[in-house]
């Protein structure tokens, strides 16, 4: 590789930041995304993301389902420039459309932004997504949102994060007042106070006044009680709180915390500036060749998500690939690690919301969309040069289970084909009973929508109408050591054993309580909520 290309890749990696937002519905993810794009100059007036959404609803027929339910099934990647940095925001589906894709997207993210509603604190979906980030050890930045509304005490929220998530916190900025009296934030490192002015709907960047903490004017600008409250809080934070430790942040053990209000733009710019400074740049990845740095000369990447029918005019599939090393170029011919085939990547797409622009090149940390002529499965590696294979993507613990029946025997073949393809695509997990006489597949999903998508697509793409019979389980655990380990413990109570599509044992439980009970009765049995990736690609 030429020195120029090496330098080019290095420079591009240095200026890239990639992240996903993890949050519970309604915490303000759409609003924050919109405001980040506003500051990034990618849109000129906030409201556009929502407007795009509405527009899309009007034009798209995949999904008729989207229209009916007023939700967005497709997740996208938003790319924008800010302060000479190239930012990639991996948008995770998060509402009623919560699915395994939400988890998988996190395997392509280098950083996560945990968005919390100040009035609610940690919520279930945030906790689940946090667990995936923790498993990957990626940096987590916390944005506490909606300070323009009454909420919980900031110190109490920090405590909740520390206790429940076992994550150290460092408040990078600190709120002054809350609700109607939210005046702004103190930037603790610069020791400057950012006082904000409310704009009508926060559609433009917020105007703010920056004053030194030591400035005598402060006492005039702030009401007395807010001023003293700030002084007290700071004494406490400086006195007992830890210092900001960037290494701990990068290891995912400490979270920098920001307070603000996405809706009114309070604190968004400050957050963005700090995020760019502290976030991890695209780094090394574990592979069959050991740890490979992003500046490794050859191109490589892995598939983290497959999406069918994004564009109703072309009933195609798009494979989303996270670039890990080298430079991606349009029309490149790559090798496909699992099958050994060569694939020409002729129609790469850059992704901005639903629009598809064609793309000429991409670098580590970027995501590209490739039309998938059926060769790609979740976790596949593509590469040029020496063969390389990335670890793959695990199966995440499903929470909803249902038997899928095909009432029409003449449609058996289509049914089987559809199930296999949808499983390979990662639309849903498939499990089977260990009882050979029960051959109907069990669908296992993390969100209800996955069932609906599977039934919809089986009917529309494979011509098979199916029946769904819900099962009363809500927890799945894989067994470390497989069947051998399971046989050793003998008969188990209050659980049902199934086989996943790799033939590995999975235990299903009705509730967490039964799971805990079994763990207590059989401490020698090691159960995991996330299935190991080993051999994941070998059966597809
Ligand atoms: P989500 O994507 O995480 O689900 O949340 P979204 O941004 O859609 O925000 C959920 C609701 O919270 C929206 O109100 C939004 O305006 C509001 N919100 C977001 N950030 C803030 C904030 O900083 N302060 C306040 N007070 N509200 C905030 P909505 O009434 O559901 O929708 P809309 O009518 O405002 O569009």
Automatic annotation (TrEMBL):
GTP binds at residues 23-30, 91-95, 145-148. Residues 14-283 form the Tr-type G domain. The lineage of its organism: Bacteria, Bacillati, Cyanobacteriota, Cyanophyceae, Oscillatoriophycideae. PROSITE patterns: G_TR_1, G_TR_2. SUPFAM superfamilies: EF-G C-terminal domain-like, P-loop containing nucleoside triphosphate hydrolases, Translation proteins. GO terms for molecular function: GTP binding; GTPase activity; translation release factor activity, codon nonspecific; translation release factor activity, codon specific. Signal peptide: none annotated. GO terms for biological process: regulation of translational termination. Belongs to the TRAFAC class translation factor GTPase superfamily. Classic translation factor GTPase family. PrfC subfamily. GO terms for cellular component: cytosol. It holds the Pfam family RF3_C. This is Peptide chain release factor 3. Increases the formation of ribosomal termination complexes and stimulates activities of RF-1 and RF-2. It binds guanine nucleotides and has strong preference for UGA stop codons. It may interact directly with the ribosome. The stimulation of RF-1 and RF-2 is significantly reduced by GTP and GDP, but not by GMP. HAMAP family: Rel_fac_3. InterPro entries: EF-G-like_DII, EFG_III/V, G_TR_CS, P-loop_NTPase, PrfC, RF3_C, RF3_dom_3_sf, RF3_GTP-bd. The gene is prfC. PANTHER family: PEPTIDE CHAIN RELEASE FACTOR RF3 (PTHR43556:SF2). It is found in: Cytoplasm. Keywords: Cytoplasm, GTP-binding, Nucleotide-binding, Protein biosynthesis.
């Amino acid at each position: 590789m030429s020195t120029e290309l090496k330098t080019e890749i290095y420079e591009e990696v240095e200026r890239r930041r990639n992240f996903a937002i993890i949050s519970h519905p309604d915490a303000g993810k759409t609003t924050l995304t919109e405001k980040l794009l506003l500051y990034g100059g990618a849109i000129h007036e906030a409201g556009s993301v929502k407007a795009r959404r509405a527009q899309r609803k009007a034009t798209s027929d995949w999904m008729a389902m989207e229209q009916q339910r007023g939700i967005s099934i497709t997740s996208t990647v938003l790319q924008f420039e800010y302060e000479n940095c190239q930012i990639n925001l991996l948008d995770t589906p998060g509402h009623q459309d919560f699915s395994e894709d939400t988890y998988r997207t996190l395997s392509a993210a280098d950083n996560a932004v945990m968005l919390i509603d100040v009035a609610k604190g940690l919520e279930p979906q945030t906790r689940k997504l946090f667990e995936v980030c923790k498993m990957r050890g990626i940096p987590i930045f916390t944005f506490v949102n909606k300070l323009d509304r009454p909420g919980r005490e900031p110190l109490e929220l920090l405590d909740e994060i520390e206790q429940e998530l076992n994550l150290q916190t460092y408040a990078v900025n600190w709120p002054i007042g809350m609700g109607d009296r939210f005046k702004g934030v103190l930037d603790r490192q610069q020791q400057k106070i950012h006082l904000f002015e409310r704009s009508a709907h926060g559609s433009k960047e917020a105007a703010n006044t920056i004053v030194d903490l030591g400035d005598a004017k402060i006492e005039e600008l702030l009401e007395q009680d807010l001023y003293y409250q700030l002084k007290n809080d700071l004494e406490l934070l400086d006195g007992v709180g830890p210092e900001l430790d960037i290494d701990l942040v990068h290891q995912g053990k400490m979270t920098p915390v920001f307070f603000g209000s996405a809706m009114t733009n309070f604190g968004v710019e400050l957050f963005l500036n700090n995020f760019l400074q502290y976030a991890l740049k695209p780094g090394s990845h574990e592979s069959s060749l050991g740890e490979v740095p992003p500046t490794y000369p050859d191109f490589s990447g892995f598939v983290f998500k497959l999406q069918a029918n994004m564009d109703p005019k072309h009933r195609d599939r798009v494979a989303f690939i996270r670039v890990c090393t080298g430079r991606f170029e349009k029309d490149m011919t790559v090798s496909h690690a699992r099958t050994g085939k060569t694939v020409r990547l002729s129609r790469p797409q850059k992704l901005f919301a639903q629009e598809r622009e064609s793309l000429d090149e991409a670098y580590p940390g970027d995501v590209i969309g490739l039309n998938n002529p059926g060769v790609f499965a979740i976790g596949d590696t593509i590469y040029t040069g020496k063969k390389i294979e990335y670890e793959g993507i695990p199966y995440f613990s499903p929470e909803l289970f249902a038997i899928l029946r095909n009432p029409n025997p003449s449609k058996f073949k289509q049914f089987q084909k559809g199930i296999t393809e949808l499983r390979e695509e990662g639309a849903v997990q498939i499990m089977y009973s260990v009882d050979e006489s029960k051959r109907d597949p069990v669908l296992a999903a993390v969100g209800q929508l996955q069932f609906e998508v599977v039934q919809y697509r089986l009917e529309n793409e494979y011509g098979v109408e199916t029946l769904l019979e819900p099962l009363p389980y809500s927890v799945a655990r894989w067994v470390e050591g497989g069947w051998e380990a399971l046989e050793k413990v003998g008969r188990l109570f209050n659980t049902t054993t199934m086989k996943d599509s790799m033939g590995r044992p999975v235990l299903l439980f009705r509730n967490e309580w039964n799971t805990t009970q079994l763990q207590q009765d059989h401490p020698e049995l090691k159960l995991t909520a996330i299935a190991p990736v080993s051999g994941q690609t070998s059966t597809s």
